[in-house]
Amino acid sequence: MKKDSVIKRIAPGLVLLFMGPLLGELVSGHQAPLQFADPFNFLLTALPYGLGALVCRELTVIWGKGKTSLVLMGIAFGLFEEIVVIRSIINSNWSELGAIGLYNFWGGVNWTYGLMLVHFHITISIVSSVLLTEAIFPKRQNKRWLSNPMLAICGVGLALWIPAGFYMTAGIPSVPLYVLGVLTMFLFVFAAYKIPSKPYRKTGRRTAHPIVFFILGLINMTVIFLGTFYEGPKPSLVVLFTALLLADIICFILLLQWSQKGYGWTDRHKIALTSGFLMFFIALTAIKDFEGSFAGYSVVSAVSVILLVVLYGLTKRRETLAAAAIDAGDKA
């Protein structure tokens, strides 16, 4: 095999390996730049995001599935990360709960907080990471990026994250809830495997403008996070959990309608959607440098916006040239 073909085969996988941690930990503001750059910390807390994105994406390609299957794999990854690895969903004393701890905990589960975490992993850790990387490598979108041995190594890396999670976080989980979480995770993996590759019929509706996808992503992320962490008067836990879940379902339905059930959207629409998801964190993270000592959060936010705009511009130019070439061929 020629050297350049080897590079072309490996490059998308390497980009996705680092795209997951960059979005999930750095752009989201969960880690400061210097903390993220620490090799041991990166290996222990950030790199598994990339491994998860690779495993989810490669399995859907191997199975010949579409993006709905990827969403289901995103749910499975969220359950794996937050129940199997660090157990935040089933820990009433989880440090990030703050004032919402007593409100959202019932029956051994952090309901609204858990829904928010799984939502984050679907939209950011998996879907955004995969869509942006595929936009960077448009000619390899429907092809495998990893060999079977490399995929197995990624799987082993994720498995090793489980004891690392027990090392990083305290607390012994409820065995029944832990087992139930594991079974639920595998249920979503099975659903991702069984769902048809094209589960929806194409509609005659015109694909919405990319800005609509951006606004949809931004509103969705804002509603889920503010709805979860708002500390003022709240309705009952059941009402709020149901409202947040419906917000996600409505977002998914609108996404299907405005993309012609996934048949009509292009990489520009996908970049716009992911940019909307990310913009909530980009804006929120930039503020951190003005609330205390400078830690570089605003620099990360500024660079993120620039890169997203550049990627969108390059993608728009590529799609315009491709459309022009098709028109020229039809006229000829």
Short key terms for the protein model shown above:
single chain, mainly alpha, 74% helix, 1% strand
TL;DR?
It is built from twelve helices and two strands, in the order αααααββααααααα. With 332 residues, the protein is an all-alpha fold. The mean pLDDT is 92.
Radius of gyration: 20 Å
Low-confidence stretches: none
Describe the global form. globular
For the largest beta-sheet, the strand count, sense and barrel status come to: 2 strands, antiparallel
- Count the beta strands: 2
Mean pLDDT: 92
Termini separation: 38 Å
Give the SSE order as H and E letters. Answer: HHHHHEEHHHHHHH
Percent range for helical residues? over 70%
Structural write-up:
With 332 residues, this protein is mostly helical. It has helices spanning 3-27, 33-37, 39-62, 67-85, 101-104, 111-136, 148-168, 175-194, 210-229, 237-258, 267-291, 297-331; strands at residues 105-106, 109-110. A two-stranded antiparallel ribbon has the order 1-2. A hairpin with a 2-residue loop joins strand 1 and strand 2 (109-110). Helix 9 (210-229) packs across helix 11 (267-291). It is globular and about 65 Å long. The protein starts with a helix and ends with a helix.
